[in-house]
Fold this sequence. Notes:
The chain has helices at about 10-25, 45-60, 110-120, 165-170, 180-185, and strands at about 1-10, 35-40, 65, 100-105, 125-135, 145-150, 160-165, 170-180. About 30% of the residues lie in helices and about 30% in strands. Helix 1 (about 10-25) crosses helix 2. The protein has about 190 residues and is of the alpha/beta class. The protein has one domain: Rossmann fold. It is globular. The protein is built from five helices and eight strands.
Amino acid sequence: MSERKQxxxxxxIRRALVRIAHEIDERNGGxxxxxxxxxxKRGIPLAERIAAAIADFEGVRVPVGHLDITLYRxxxxxxxxxxxxxxxxxxxDLVGKVVVLVDDVLYTGRTARAALDAIADLGRPxxxxxxxxxxxxxxxxPIRADFVGKNIPTARTERVEVHLRESDDTDEVLIVRSxxxxxxxxx
Length: 187
């Protein structure tokens, strides 16, 4: 049994992504060298939404790439003998670019580290920045996001679930707490 608490609504997600889009523009002094790269799975639609927001207020379409980090994960052996690998699709040369990695949740930092390794194999951009919808803390590596939709303090026993209409038919962010774990901790 679990308790689910909504922490971001569809409108709050939209506003957070629009704010991140403006911050990316401001921090980089324009968008001519910016390339958004969504980390599979939910980072991809978030990157597309940020690009759409930028197009709305700047009238320019920032390119969006897709990055699969499966083979760069440090827990690959724990995931079984045949991990599911998805397509990496980055149509632009990274040299001289500002690559903004986009992901849904920043937790331990291991996904971001794997994405940095994957980008390094694809080229050498001038800068790499990280944009996340949710930063939940509990870092295991010295990684921080440059752009954050919402900081949400969590317990390690809680899960943050990001649901997006592109894959889940709804937009919301939930904190899910197992009531069984809570009962065990009190015993």
